[in-house]
Design a protein that fits this description.
12 helices; six-stranded parallel beta sheet; globular; Rossmann fold; 6-phosphogluconate dehydrogenase C-terminal fold; alpha/beta
Length: about 300
């Protein structure tokens, strides 16, 4: 049982974390912090938080756990604000989609107190934002990556992991560097491409006609382009090096497929499509098998 948690950012990610812990009976009091008074009041109205903090320092005073669920570019500023008020028993974590930049920000802002910061990343989300998007079941059956620091104690890591488990999540472990490489490929690049495609079509002179005939395939491919532009701007820039590597590799793939199309190479294109379908079917099968694994047999920790 956590007596008090403080959440910076009471929208989809932070709000769902609070609701899940409340539903599990795992927290007594939730304090919210944010840039928008309207969002904080809405979170209070929805029962996501129990109190709106008067200051960042007041929010973390006496807190068992602090979650930073704000855009990653705000991490250092928030940590600098709360650093003087962090007591020896408080653990801080985050929900950012990049980790190397967050770790660097934490080291600059927290100094010796960085040992109390346990980096994390819940692999869950929706294209909706704000407190009204929060769901208590958002993390049920989902993965949470913990990128623990050498300075973190086992007890501090376990406090963060236990909170996410109470939300229904399974814990995995990656280094910050490996995390950013992995998610550049399977999360950050797909968002980049979805935004690029929709923006390209929106700029065409016949955009209205094109959107009129766009159907389920376009909708499914571009769903994630409905996500927060501010958040994804920060993620893209924070993971720039890994993103550039993945983008360069993807451009090579597009050029290879363009050459096949130009040469009317049907067998070549079909081979790419077949390999992609096979890989996707294996991935979906693995997800479905994991969803059916009894909780008692599920792998709770996976160090890579």
């Amino acid at each position: 049982m956590l007596d008090k948690i403080a959440i910076f950012g009471v929208g989809l990610i932070g709000g769902s974390f609070a609701l899940a812990l409340k539903q599990a009976g795992a927290v007594r009091h939730v304090v919210g912090v944010g840039r928008s008074r309207a969002s904080l009041e809405r979170a209070l109205e929805l029962g996501i938080i129990d109190e709106i903090a008067t200051s960042a320092a007041q929010a973390v005073a006496g807190a068992d756990l602090v979650l930073l669920a704000a855009p990653v570019a705000q991490t250092e500023n928030i940590l600098r604000q709360i650093q003087p008020a962090i007591g020896p028993s408080t653990v801080i974590t985050d929900a950012g989609s990049t980790k190397s930049d967050v770790v660097a920000a934490a080291r600059r802002a927290l100094g010796e107190k960085v040992a109390q910061f346990v980096p994390g990343h819940p692999i869950a989300g929706r294209e909706m934002n704000g407190p009204d998007a929060a769901l208590p079941q958002l993390y049920a059956g989902k993965k949470v990556v913990i990128a623990a620091l050498p300075e973190n104690s086992d007890q501090h890591v376990e406090r963060v992991a236990a909170a996410w488990r109470r939300c229904g999540a399974t814990i995995f472990r990656l280094s910050a560097e490996r995390h950013d490489q992995v998610f550049a490929a399977v999360s950050h690049l797909p968002h980049f491409l979805a935004y690029a495609l929709v923006d390209d079509i929106a700029r065409k002179p016949n955009a209205d006609q094109l959107f009129q005939y766009a159907a389920s395939g376009f909708r499914d491919f571009t769903r994630i382009a409905g996500s927060s532009p501010e958040m994804w701007r920060d993620i893209t820039l924070a993971n720039r090096d890994a993103m550039l590597d993945e983008l360069d590799a993807y451009i090579v793939q597009l050029q290879r497929m363009r050459a096949m199309l130009d040469a009317a190479d049907g067998p070549g294109l079909e081979a790419v499509y077949a390999n992609a379908r096979h890989a996707r079917e294996n991935w979906i099968g693995a997800i479905e098998a994991g969803d059916k694994t009894p909780a008692s047999k599920a792998i709770q920790e996976n160090q890579q």
